[in-house]
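Predict structure. Input: Acid phosphatase, 163 residues.
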Amino acid sequence: MNKGVYLALISIGLAQGLKIPIHYLKKKEWRPELFFGTGGMPSSHSAGVTTLTTYIALRRGLPTFDFALSLIYGLIVMYDAQGIRRQTGELTLKVNSMNDLIEKIQKEESLEFKQEGAKKLKEMLGHQPEEVAGGALFGALIGVIGHLCTKKDRKFADFKLRF
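Output follows.
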C-alpha cells in the first residue's frame, strides 16, 4: 500500500479518536463508542480525503491527474457528508420521535396490540458544515506532516530556530 493511503487511514483513525474528547468537552459526557460511530466533530470523511489530496498535491503537484481526481472525489465526499447524510440523519430523528409517539398512544389504548419492538434508527449520520471544515483542516495538517515525514531529502539539520 502506498504512503498516501496509510496517511489517509491514520487521519481517519485520529479524527475518530478526537471525537471522544471533543464530545466530552462539549457535553461533559464520556462516550468511547463515538470512535466507531458516524457524524460528530471532526468529520473523519473530510479528514481522510483531505489528507490524501494534500499529500498528493505536495508529492506530485497540482497539475497532475492524481491531484485532480483526489480533489473532485474529496469534494463529493465532503458535500455528501454534510448534505445528503445530514438530511438523512434529520429525517431519522423525526421517524424515531414519531415511533416514540406511536408507542405512547398504543400504551394508552385499552386494546391489546402486539408488535415487535422496532429498532431505533441511527440518528447521527451526517455532519454539520463546521464538522466538515474541521475535518478538512485536520486532514490538511496530517497531509502536510505526513509529506514532511516521508520526504526522502529531509534536511532537519538545516532547520534552525530563530528567536
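The longest helix spans residues 3-27.
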